[in-house]
Amino acid sequence: MPPRRSQRISGSTKAKSSTARSASGKNKAIIAQPANKRRKLALTALTLPDDSEDEDTEEEDVDDSDAEKDVTPPTKQGGQRDTTAPARKRYVKGKRGILQKITDTPLDVLFEIFSYLEPLDLLRLGRTTKDLRALLMSKSSAFVWERARLAMKNLPPFLDDLTEPQYANLLFDSSCHECGKHTINTVQWEARLRLCKHCLQDGSIMTADEDYLVDLSSRYRDLMLVTPKYILTGQRLTLIYFHLPAYRRLAEECSSMNDQSFQVWISNKGGEYSALVQGCRAYQRWSSLKKYGRNSELRSLRRERMTSIIHRLEADGWSDELRDFDTLMTLEKHKLVRQSKALTERIWTNICPTLTKVVSDARTAILTRKINTAISRRVASLQELCKPLLAKMSEREASPSASMIPRLEPFFSLIKNTPFELDITTADFSEALESLPDTCALWRRQRDADLKKILLKNDHSDNLALAMNTFTCKSSSCLALSNTGLNTSVNVWDPQSITTVTGRLREDFEDIIRMCGLDPAVATAEDMDAVQAFFIEAEGACSRVRVMDWRGAMGYVKEHPATRVKRVSDAHLISRAQILNAFDLAAELNSEFRTESFVCVHCDMTDLSSRDAREWHLISGHNIPRGSDPANHFRRSLKYGYTFTKHVGF
């Protein structure tokens, strides 16, 4: 029970009757309130002095920039301080003297107010002044701490080895017990400590070095089993930290015992440690539930803040934008929204311009996304319409790929300038598709002009029909003749990404043309095809020989600069029949793997490189049943200069 007396913490032993009546009235006002408001009223009673009692307690408005400035008296000439000049008042940030009226409050009133506070409030209150610390840390004030602890819900049983202030400090304060660092949420329950990562690992209080424990006692194995410890589990390593003061105390206690006494003693310590661990498990569960409850509370506050912000933005006319999922996610992740604070009118007035700009930017992003989606849909539709038309064009004539057509006029203007709300149908593309041959011819003339500039820049003949005039991509190893396509990428014919073959590689290509009996200066690609020459590796010593046509030989030499090729003649061990068998069309067509590209003889459809694609094309396009001989319906494609390379055995 609190002492029923009117003794003051300091000052006069007699209290003014008006002060006592005022404090008693405040006490009755606190008791009359509901339980959930008592703590706030108790803190208010401690921090708000009565203005009518002392007019000098009113605080002056001090600018934060002047806070904590110690203004010293001016100095005389010569550097000596002028002690006669009056020292100006030192201003400190915050309110000064806010607790000075507590010294005039009776103890029974103070204890009654304290009993409505939480243990953490008592801790912080005891750190304000020396008088309050001496009062709250005395044994006669233990009942105040006990009342505050019993008012807390779902607390585990009290730890008898701790005092009430120590118990409150361990459970509710978040500062490191060693260095004072704040926001430390990890507690070493067995050691009754709350340590930060640095203090845990420095080895002065807890250590994971078992060799150090061995040096302290020869009975380290038994002592480590009953020493308070903390297990730190990481992704790759688990460390066990032992409480050094407890270990030293145990080692000193058993140092003079014989083996029989030690066994009895260690058995008793084992029982005590088991009870300690059992009690710590309850506090670990309580800590986890507290953390989960706090996180749930913070999430609830963030959701309420987010909901309030959305309602206010909808009232300002942003309803359509807030229906977009990406906008909501951007808004939810914003630092002004993702806060665990209730939204007030003052806060909304401050953050409204910033959040309005976020939603306005989201409106622009939504419009851009709709436009890009419409354009992508139109491009895909145009490409599907262009593929059959492009496949019927001559294999010997270079043509833009289906992915390049949407970038050419008049298709580009039609896709770009049509409002995104409107759908472009096949009928809308029909007029532009009628001019597709003219569009391809114009693209071909522009492309040929660019290629001729590349040849002339390297002092080569600008005759694109020559077999020597080959080109390669700067970003890849593809090789193609000038009148064929390099690949199907969008910027394939960009002159900045293409170069011609020069140097030693060009000399190797000239040798290949000379092996066919032709002059590299005048031989065209059609002349090379008419020769029907085949090549093998000049130094091949394997049981299987790679056989190539002239295109394959050029590509092989480019990929293997140190390798030379030679032409196959009837004098070689490989007969011409074996070579022709290596390029057997029927065997290629019946292969289940992707091979060279083939062309349909009925409709000139190209890029049919897989067996399933060829079978489906015959069934869906020409009503030809499955199982018919594919050699009657397909021929090899020469458009992209595929290399016909095979391994032929002797």
Attribute tags:
three-stranded antiparallel β-sheet; disordered N terminus; elongated; disordered C terminus; four-stranded antiparallel β-sheet; 650 residues; single chain; alpha+beta; 7% strand
Description of the structure:
By secondary structure, this protein is α+β, with helices and mostly antiparallel strands. Helices cover 47% and strands 7% of the residues. The protein is built from 24 helices and twelve strands. Strands 9-7-8-12 form a four-stranded antiparallel sheet. Strands 1-3-2 form a three-stranded antiparallel sheet. Strands 5-4-6 form a three-stranded antiparallel sheet, with helices on one face. Helix 19 packs antiparallel against helix 21.
Indicate the low-confidence ranges by residue numbers: 1-32, 48-73, 481-492, 573-595, 638-650
Strand order of the largest sheet: 9-7-8-12
Q: Identify the overall geometry.
A: elongated
| Helical content (DSSP H or I, runs of 4+) | 40-55%
Mean pLDDT score:
75
Report the C-alpha radius of gyration, rounded.
45 Å
Gap between N and C termini: 111 Å
**Helical stretch count?**
24
The biggest beta sheet is recorded as: 4 strands, antiparallel
Coarse structural class: alpha+beta
How many distinct beta strands? 12
Give the amount of beta strand, in percent.
5-15%
